[in-house]
Amino acid sequence: MESPEHMEIDAAGIRDDYLAAVRELREQYKTECANANIDYVPIDTSVGFDKALLDYLVLRQRRFG
């Protein structure tokens, strides 16, 4: 939460740790979804929702169609 407190952070210094934590979280999501028989489909948020959904549905149709 925001507060009046001021904190300086060396972004370059924590970059590798941050990226490792994100990779670990993604792997955890991927594993948990697989265990629950749920499709895990990461998407690029710069891609429109309609295109991302269409790409997913086409992929799913090929797999189950």
Give a short summary of the structure.
The chain is mostly helical and 65 residues long. It has helices at residues 11-35, 49-64. It is elongated, with a radius of gyration of 18 Å.
Report on the architecture of this protein:
The protein is mainly α and 65 residues long. Helix content is 63%, strand content 0%. It starts with 10 loop residues before the first helix and ends with a helix. The model has no long low-confidence stretch (mean pLDDT 91).
Mean pLDDT: 91
Q: How far do the termini sit from each other? A: 47 Å
CA-based shape: elongated
Query: Main sheet?
Result: none
Radius of gyration: 18 Å
Q: How many separate helices?
A: 2
Residue stretches low in confidence (pLDDT < 50, at least 5 long) are: none
* Total number of strands: 0
Oligomeric state: single chain
Strand content: under 5%
Strand-and-helix sequence, N→C?
A: HH
Structural class: mainly alpha
Indicate the percent of residues in helices: 55-70%
